[in-house]
Amino acid sequence: MRVDVVSIFPDYLAPLRLSLVGKAIETGLIDLAVHDLRDWTHDRHRTVDDTPYGGGAGMVMRPEPWGEALDDLVPAGTDARLLIMTPSGRPFDQRLAAELAAEPRVIIACGRYEGIDARVAEHAATRMRVDEVSIGDYVLNGGEAAALVIIEAFARLIPGVIGNPESLAEESHSADHDQLLEYPVYTKPAAWRGLEVPEVLLSGHHGRITAWRHERAVELTRRRRPELLPDAERTDELEVRPAV
Ligand SMILES: COc1ccc(Cn2ccc3ccc(-c4cc(N)[nH]n4)cc32)cc1
User: Fold this and answer.
1) Ligand 1 binding pocket mutation candidate from 108, 114, 117, 148 (most atoms within 8 A of CB)
2) CA 223 / ligand 1 centre spacing (Å)
3) pLDDT at 236 over 70
């Protein structure tokens, strides 16, 4: 998979060269290219922003550099998917991560200032699939942190990136885990600062362990994210529970 990221702060994407995503890049599972948007400016000051039509605070990113960047990165006839980071985008979730993991080419536009001129998305959509994407209901200063999150989330789903694909199946929000949150995990020592590992996990009884883990996942999901509960697990009675 080829991933292109365009930003005025390309160094912000340096962490992608670390850890699992970095290994996937080294082994060629992912071909990552990070570009400086200013390479598509032509004035002495390498200007990427201008004042907003209609007034208002802040500056807006000019369409011309973005248009030229996308012309170069996505030649006519290329099958590519453009993701534009924005606080007003569709919520990013595991389903979209799985879709992106199957794409041959993804281009991620990281804006700054008050965002990118709306015509960039409009024009790009005439020749590629465009998604304006948010990573949550909070406001960042630009799209780079969102790009790091999204790339990590879909890269780990690419076959060969994660050593043990079985671990993907049991994770929170994974489709095969019917949207339950992940159960609590423990490792050695069995006793730590007076806190014991739940006995069942030391029993070696796999049936009981599986049942206990499912119960904990349902309990956690009911408490923290009831909207994710499958119908079969919903109970309406009010239950007093610890706030943990
Ligand atoms: C109109 O209101 C604003 C518009 C833009 C901004 C700053 N900014 C500029 C580009 C950009 C790209 C993504 C994001 C972002 C994404 C999520 N989930 N939160 N924030 C923020 C971004 C602040 C406020």
Assistant:
1) 114
2) 30
3) no
- Distance (Å, rounded) from C-alpha 227 to C-alpha 138? 20
Atom of ligand 1 nearest to the CA of 86: 13
Instruction: Flag the least confident range among 41-45, 130-134, 174-178, 197-201.
Output: 174-178
- For the segment 176-193, the average pLDDT, to the nearest whole number, is 90
Q: Whose CA is nearest to atom 1 of ligand 1?
A: 114
Specify whether the CB–CB gap between 218 and 180 falls below 8 A: yes
* Ligand 1 centroid to residue 137 C-alpha, Å: 10
What distance in angstroms lies between residue 52's CA and the mean position of ligand 1's atoms?
A: 15
**pTM flag (> 0.95):** no
Output the ligand 1 site: residues, CB below 6 A: 85-87, 111-115, 134-136, 138-143, 146
Domain range annotation of the chain: 2-155, 178-240
Q: Do 2-155 and 178-240 come out as alike in CATH topology?
A: no
- The domain 2-155: what is its CATH number? 3.40.1280.10
Grade residue 235 by pLDDT with cuts at 50, 70 and 90.
confident
Q: Please, what CATH class does the domain formed by 178-240 belong to?
A: mainly alpha
Whole-number pLDDT of residue 179: 84
Task: Give the tokens for residue 214.
Answer: 């499912």
The pLDDT of residue 242 is above 80: no
Name 109's bridge partners: 6, 84
CA 64 – ligand 1 centroid, Å? 20
Could you give the CA distance from residue 55 to residue 199 in angstroms, rounded to a whole number?
Answer: 64
Q: Which of 213, 224, 219, 217 is nearest to 235 (CA)?
A: 219
